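Give me structure tokens for this 298-residue protein.
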Amino acid sequence: MESSAFKDSTSDKMFTVLNGLFLIVVSLLVLYPLIYIVSASFSSPSAVLSGKVWLWPVEPTLRGYEAVFEYKRVWTGFANSLFYTGVGTLVNVAITITGAYALSRKDLKGRQFIMMLCVFTMLFHAGLIPVYLVVQDLGLLNTRWSLILPTALAVWNLIIARTFFQITIPDEMLEASQIDGCSDFQFFFKIVLPLSAPIIAVLCLFYAVGHWNQYFQALLYLRDPGLQPLQMVLRDILVRNEVNASLIMDVRVAAEQDGLRQLLKYSLIVVASVPILIIYPFVQKHFVKGVMIGSLKG
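Here you go.
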């Protein structure tokens, strides 16, 4: 066959060019708000208020970050978010991995019925008020566990993990270990878990991002400011525009209160995003593999 037969036609080349231009435009639309937020966080309050910031920082300063770390609620919210993310992710992954492995075992009686019940909860939800009443009756209102236990298991992640085990852990491996006298617990902890690093990394990322970004549950269940996560602090600044100038100490002398509020918004958004950006590179190498393997079959 002649090599010319493999050349792209004019319409194919046009599609490639137009597709590339479209992707460039979409990328710019996505990246520009992020660049603007970072630039505004390093600009002076007067430059942010006057609208001088477009792409690069104007009158570069660290006043916004100084104000963030001098604002006491930020430290409390940051510590709370670390607790909810760390403990919540640990609980989520433990329940998801053990439940998914059990449901992947063919010798588990009634596993199809159990799986059907789990999937049913994805399609039909009781609603906000019944869930709130359950949390209230369990005595979880205004406690740290109200942000952890009600979301202890995500069914979609359970399905992905179960599929991963079905593909990665063959029945022959289990039979061989049983012949050697390996119990179910030994097989799970010594063989299954070491082979499950990709899916565990994916689950950790999914759950950690969810816990770090959650604010709606905190808005419903938490009344004590000392228990609220960082996203609630950010919400108060962004939506309700609540910043107590008396808590900002020396920074309020350097800028007007309105300008400082605007600067705090952008600086706090950057600070709140940094932890997830730090975690992602460590799990990225497992991310694609875990998702692809876990999505081959249901």
